[in-house]
Amino acid sequence: MTDTGPALIALDWGTSGQRAWLLGKGGEILDARSAERGLLSTTEDVDLRDPRARAAAYEAAFRKTCGDWLAAFPAVPAIASGMVGSAQGWTDSGYRTVPASLDFTSLVPVPHRDGVLHLVPGLRVPSGESPGDVLRGEETQLVGVLEALGDPREPVTVVLPGTHSKWVRVEDGFVTDFATAMTGELYGLLTAHGILSRTAADPVRDEAAFLRGLAAGKRSRGLATEAFGARPLVLDGVLAPASLPDYLSGVLIADEVSHLLRDSDTRVVLCGAGELCRRYALALADRGVEATVLSEEITTRGLWRLATAAGLLEDRLERTLKP
Amino acid sequence: MTDTGPALIALDWGTSGQRAWLLGKGGEILDARSAERGLLSTTEDVDLRDPRARAAAYEAAFRKTCGDWLAAFPAVPAIASGMVGSAQGWTDSGYRTVPASLDFTSLVPVPHRDGVLHLVPGLRVPSGESPGDVLRGEETQLVGVLEALGDPREPVTVVLPGTHSKWVRVEDGFVTDFATAMTGELYGLLTAHGILSRTAADPVRDEAAFLRGLAAGKRSRGLATEAFGARPLVLDGVLAPASLPDYLSGVLIADEVSHLLRDSDTRVVLCGAGELCRRYALALADRGVEATVLSEEITTRGLWRLATAAGLLEDRLERTLKP
Fold it and tell me: Which Enzyme Commission number(s) are listed (chains A, B) (predicted)?
């Protein structure tokens, strides 16, 4: 094996899909693939209470996506983050309790036929006096974000919008607290099922409807009332049925920002899909906060850094040096 | 026809079902039936843009449920409220704009083969400076509630919890304002689809979980965050998966009450399903408001009073007096 060969197999393995990368010795992407082999489809026909059957299903899904890489580069270490490390995953990689450093010095090794896959643990705020929370997969994005920001020592609030948006407070490399809003999931449920989905017709992009929704979501009548509010607007002819989803997007994002933004959030960084970040940036600007937006492709950077911190790349070096 | 015969055919005809009653001359229930012939199933195979096809479908559904009554008592008037009077209904009965008296002096007549069905209009708050809203069907419950309360002249806040909970402010027989929270629909979506439905297993009644949810919903982190909060509680072993629905019920109801209860609500009356009213009463008590609870069977009372106010029963008297 030469110095220019692959150095790491890295996976973002979530609820609905898998993304896998073959990374070079500088962390650069040599090859990439994605498959719909997430937790749901992988465990579809498996009794989740049977750890062996579960492990066999995950190993088969892993080999389907990465089998040729494992065969061609047997000494290359592998790392995965996301729901693959949950209680319903291949192996439960657990949670680190906040305040927690993101420089994990150890990962959870899962032996398989062709080697070992190292799973990244999630983070948790324990339930107690104050409300608990959990995240898994986002810790890897966070690591990538902090590196991209040059590992700031001052407090940063990292917002990762999505199905379950995360608002993470970080200080000097430590996650001090975080909260989740299931905004994206509510958007999906409301636009796919229920009365608003029957009102909406062939959605179109409508920035004015989104901004109108943002203004409604800032009011104090609550999400359950402002979301319903789309219906009278359509009945009154003020909102086109095709614009209802964008209106709802505005209502939900404004509601989330209203509740989770704190006065102490001096620096806010958004990382996620471009259009979603643009919408959150508008909602934050509406609150007088100028956010920095980072591109979504921060995950490989996070996986690379986690692998490095846990010594996976040194191991490999040592192994390749031995005869 | 004798004085002891039926005086009114009354229907509560909503989105998912029909309830029909044959009422005696004092408004008492002589016969009752219900069928799953709501707006959805009635218009399932109908092009909604074709008013004739739509009317034919509604007439067929009406006759299936009430045909024998129509044949046996041809002179008896008929009234219906609910989504049957919506834009996707038999005929659009429109909306009265608030502030509106509930003593409607006219209804919307829909002729059919065997006579005329009188449709009750809904109520609307127009969209403008302040947010708009609509209700349809609940105006009939309101009429029944106000009669049951002895037509109070002082301000009353009537809360009708359900799929789309209504908070209606009434003063001296006039509806001055109202707001809708789609709390029941959100509960249904979250427990039937999405991540929380996968966490919940064979729901059981759990009052402690409900009360814990109430406390969480009172916090200021927002519905999208507190609903997700059920998940870490389950992962931490604090909440049993089977208790998740009751926890969520508490979160959603407390969130609704927090947002829609006003300092000016001096008298609050709850009307709806018994268990749901009990839960709302607890959430209100938590805010220092003691609510009066009325039983759900207020609808026939409302329909009877609406028919009386619109002169339907006099018409019949006149007709029966003519040779």
Answer: 2.7.1.58
- Residue A149 one-letter amino acid: L
pLDDT > 80? residue B3: no
**Alpha-carbon distance B64 to nearest alpha carbon in chain A (angstroms):** 26
Residue B214, chain A, CB below 8 Å: the answer is no
Residue A319 sits at the chain B interface (C-beta within 8 Å):
no
Tokens standing for residue B120: 């009750």
The interaxial angle of helices B299-309 and B312-321, nearest 10 deg, is 60
**pLDDT tens digits along B149-187:** 999 999 999 999 999 999 999 999 999 999 999 999 999
| CATH class of the B6-133+300-321 domain in this structure | alpha beta
Other beta carbons within 10 angstroms of residue A233's beta carbon come to 24
d(CA A154, nearest CA chain B) in Å: 25
CATH architecture of A137-322: 2-Layer Sandwich (3.30)
Average pLDDT over residues B299-321: 82
DSSP code for B85 = G
| Beta strand segments in chain A, E | 6-13, 18-24, 29-35, 78-81, 95-97, 100-101, 108-112, 115-119, 122-125, 133-135, 156-160, 165-171, 174-181, 268-271, 292-294
Which CATH architecture describes the domain A1-134?
2-Layer Sandwich (3.30)
